[in-house]
C-alpha cells in the first residue's frame, strides 16, 4: 500500500483547528489508514490503494473534517470554464485531459504534498506511468491554448526539471534520471509526446519529465494539471483527485475543454447519485442503524444523504471517491462512521465437517486418468471473446453471458465450450515439439432462457500432429470411458467447426454427452495452425449423473 507522510501542522491549517498526534493516530484507522510511525510532528501512514484521495494532506484533512464534525456532508467545489487545449498527440498515448486550480496558497510543505500525491498516483492508478502520467505547471508561465503534439526527438530540446541546460528529447532519455527510469515507455517510437503552449514553450515530455520553465514554486498562485494516458476513464479519475486535492488549498477549479483527436472536457465534479437500502447494512455488518443515524454517519464520511423511503437513503458520492462502485461500499462507509470498535463479536456457529463435492472428486479422477493417457493439462480463463468462441471456429453464435463493461476485447463474455481455447493454446504453441496433446477440465456457462443460466463441468481434449485423425481422438476417449466404466455409442453428426463425415456425437444412456472430430480446414487457417487438429469435448456433469444413476 502507498506510504504517505504529512505534517500535523499542515493538517491543522487545512482542518482549521488544533490537532494532537494522539488524535490523528486514533482517527486514521477509521479511514482504513494504518499508522506506521509518528516522528517530529510528522505522521507516516499507509493508505489503501482504493483511496487515492488520501494520498496527501489535502484529502486527508478533508476526511478528518468530517470525522471531527468540523464540516459535514458533500464538499462543494467552485468550478468554471478555464483555458482551452488541443490534442494532436501520438496514437500510442492518445488521451489528454487538463484542469486548472486558482487562488492557491502554497509553502514548502504544500509543494511537497502536491509532489507526493502526484507520485503516489503514478505508482498506483498510473501503473508506474505506463497507464497514466501527471504534470503540474505554474499557469502564469503558460500561454494558452496548450497543445499536445508528437515531436521529433532530435530536433526539439528544452530544459528538464533540475537541469541547468537544455537537452534534446532523445538525450533526456539517457542523461536525465527520470528519462533513464521511464524512457522505455516511448523510446521505441519515431515521435515523442510533447506538451507545449501557444508560443511553443515546452511544458513537459509526458510521461517522462516536466520543464524547468514551468516549475511550481511557493510563489505559484494558479496551476494547470495535465493527465496523459492510455485509458480515458483512469485519466478522468486521476485528474479529479488531483484537482479536488489542490482545491483544498485554493479557491476554484477551472474546467478545460480539449479539442482534436480525442475531444474531452474535464474534470467532472458532479457527484454520483445512488441509493442504499439499510437492510443491506444489517445483512452484511450485523448492526441496526436508523435512517437518520445512517445519514449522519455518511455525512461524517463526506457524503450527502437523505431519507427517501422506508429504510432507504439517497446518497450523493463525491467525484473524487473512485472507490465507491456498489452499495456494498456505502455499507462499509456507514460501518466506519458507526465505528468498527462498536461492532460486537458473535460466537461462530457449531462446527460442521465439510467434504469434497462429488463433481470435484470426479473431475480430479478424470484429470489423473487423462494425464496418464499422455495429455498435458492447460487452464484457461472462463472469460473470453466471441471471436474465439465463434468467429474463428466457424461456429454459429448462441446465447452467451456478456460482460456489461468489458475493459479488454479479449474478455467480453463467458465461454460456452472449451475446444476454442484449446485451439488458441495450440496456435500459440507452434514453436513447441509435436505431437501436442493437451486437455482442460473446467466449467462453461450456458444460457437456457431469459435470465436463466447454468454452469456445466466439461472435459476437452485436443491432439495436433502431422497426421492426426478422428481415430486418434476416438482412441483417447475410448480409453477414458473404459477406465471409468461408462458404455457409450457414436453417431455421426454435423458440426460447423469440424469436417463433415469425420465428426461424431458421443451418446451415453441415449443422451448426447459430448462430441469429437477433426477440425475443419477453414478453422485451421483462421488460427494459422500448421498441423491438423482432432478434438473432443465431454460433459462431466452428465457423465457423473449417469454413473450415479447406474450405481
Short description:
The chain has 551 residues and is α+β, with helices and mostly antiparallel strands. 30% of the residues lie in helices and 29% in strands.
Would you count the extended β strands for me? 27
Given the structure, what is the number of helices? 16
User: Cα distance, first to last residue?
Assistant: 54 Å
Rounded to the nearest angstrom, the radius of gyration is 30 Å
CATH class of the largest domain: Alpha Beta
List its salient traits.
alpha+beta, ten-stranded mixed sheet, 30% helix
SSE layout and pairing:
Elements: E1 3-7, H1 8-15, H2 21-27, E2 34-39, E3 42-46, H3 57-67, E4 79-87, E5 95-102, H4 108-123, E6 132-138, E7 146-151, E8 157-158, E9 167-168, H5 169-175, H6 177-182, E10 192-196, E11 202-205, E12 209-210, E13 223-229, H7 232-247, E14 252-260, E15 264-266, E16 272-277, H8 278-285, H9 291-300, E17 304-309, E18 312-317, H10 327-338, H11 358-372, E19 376-377, E20 383-384, H12 386-391, E21 413-414, H13 419-427, E22 436-449, E23 452-464, H14 470-484, E24 489-492, E25 498-508, E26 511-519, H15 521-526, E27 533-539, H16 540-550
Parallel strand pairs: 4-7, 4-14, 19-22
Antiparallel strand pairs: 1-3, 2-3, 5-13, 5-14, 6-13, 7-10, 8-9, 10-11, 11-12, 14-15, 16-18, 17-18, 20-21, 22-23, 23-27, 24-25, 25-26, 26-27
Helix pairs in contact: 1-3, 4-7, 8-10, 9-10
Amino acid at each position: 500500500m502507498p506510504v504517505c507522510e504529512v505534517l500535523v501542522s499542515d493538517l491543522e491549517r487545512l482542518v482549521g483547528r488544533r490537532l494532537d498526534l494522539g488524535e490523528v493516530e486514533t482517527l486514521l484507522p477509521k479511514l482504513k489508514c494504518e499508522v506506521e510511525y509518528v516522528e517530529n510532528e510528522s505522521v507516516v501512514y499507509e493508505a489503501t490503494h482504493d483511496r487515492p484521495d488520501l494520498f496527501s494532506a489535502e484529502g486527508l484533512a478533508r476526511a478528518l473534517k468530517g470525522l471531527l464534525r468540523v464540516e459535514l456532508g458533500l464538499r462543494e467545489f467552485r468550478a468554471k470554464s478555464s483555458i482551452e487545449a488541443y490534442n494532436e498527440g501520438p496514437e500510442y498515448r492518445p488521451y489528454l485531459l487538463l484542469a486548472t486550480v486558482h487562488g492557491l496558497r502554497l509553502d514548502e510543505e504544500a509543494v511537497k504534498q502536491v509532489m507526493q500525491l502526484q507520485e503516489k498516483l503514478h505508482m498506483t492508478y498510473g501503473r508506474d506511468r505506463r497507464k497514466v502520467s501527471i504534470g503540474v505547471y505554474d499557469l502564469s508561465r503558460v500561454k494558452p491554448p496548450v497543445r499536445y503534439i508528437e515531436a521529433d526527438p532530435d530536433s526539439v530540446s528544452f530544459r528538464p526539471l533540475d537541469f541547468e541546460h537544455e537537452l534534446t528529447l532523445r538525450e533526456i532519455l539517457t542523461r536525465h534520471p527520470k528519462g533513464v527510469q521511464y524512457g522505455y515507455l516511448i523510446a521505441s517510437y519515431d515521435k515523442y509526446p510533447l506538451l507545449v503552449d501557444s508560443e511553443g514553450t515546452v511544458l513537459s515530455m509526458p510521461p517522462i519529465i516536466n520543464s524547468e520553465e514551468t516549475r511550481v514554486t511557493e510563489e505559484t498562485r494558479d496551476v494547470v494539471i495535465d493527465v496523459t494516458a492510455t485509458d480515458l476513464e483512469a485519466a478522468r479519475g486521476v485528474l479529479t483527485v488531483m484537482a479536488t486535492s489542490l482545491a483544498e488549498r485554493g479557491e476554484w477549479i477551472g474546467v478545460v475543454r480539449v479539442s482534436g483527436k480525442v475531444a474531452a472536457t474535464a474534470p467532472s465534479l458532479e457527484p454520483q447519485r445512488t441509493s442504499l437500502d439499510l437492510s443491506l447494512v444489517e445483512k452484511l455488518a450485523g448492526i441496526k442503524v436508523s435512517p437518520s443515524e445512517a445519514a449522519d454517519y455518511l455525512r461524517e464520511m463526506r457524503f450527502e444523504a437523505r431519507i427517501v423511503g422506508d429504510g432507504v437513503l439517497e446518497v450523493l458520492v463525491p467525484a473524487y471517491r473512485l472507490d465507491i462502485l456498489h452499495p456494498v461500499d456505502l455499507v462499509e462507509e456507514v460501518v466506519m462512521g458507526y465505528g468498527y470498535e462498536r461492532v460486537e463479536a458473535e460466537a461462530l456457529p457449531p462446527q460442521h465437517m465439510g467434504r469434497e463435492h462429488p463433481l470435484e472428486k470426479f473431475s480430479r479422477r478424470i484429470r489423473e486418468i487423462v494425464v496418464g493417457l499422455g495429455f498435458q493439462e492447460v487452464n484457461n480463463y472462463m472469460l473470453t471473446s466471441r471471436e474465439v468462441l465463434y468467429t474463428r471456429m466457424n461456429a454459429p453464435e448462441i446465447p452467451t453471458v456478456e460482460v456489461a463493461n468489458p475493459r479488454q476485447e479479449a474478455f467480453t463474455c463467458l465461454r460456452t465450450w472449451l475446444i476454442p481455447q484449446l485451439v488458441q493454446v495450440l496456435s500459440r504453441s507452434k514453436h513447441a515439439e509435436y505431437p501436442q496433446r493437451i486437455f482442460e477440465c473446467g466449467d462453461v456457462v450456458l444460457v437456457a432462457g431469459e435470465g436463466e443460466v447454468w454452469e456445466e463441468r466439461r472435459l476437452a481434449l485436443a491432439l495436433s500432429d502431422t497426421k492426426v485423425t478422428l481415430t486418434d481422438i476416438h482412441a483417447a476417449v475410448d480409453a477414458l470411458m473404459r477406465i471409468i466404466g461408462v458404455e457409450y455409442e457414436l453417431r455421426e453428426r454435423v458440426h460447423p467447426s469440424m469436417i463433415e463425415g469425420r465428426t461424431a456425437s458421443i451418446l451415453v444412456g441415449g443422451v448426447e454427452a459430448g462430441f469429437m472430430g477433426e477440425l475443419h480446414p477453414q478453422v485451421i487457417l483462421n488460427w494459422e495452425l500448421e498441423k491438423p487438429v482432432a478434438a473432443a469435448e465431454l460433459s462431466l456433469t452428465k457423465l457423473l449423473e449417469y454413473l450415479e444413476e447406474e450405481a
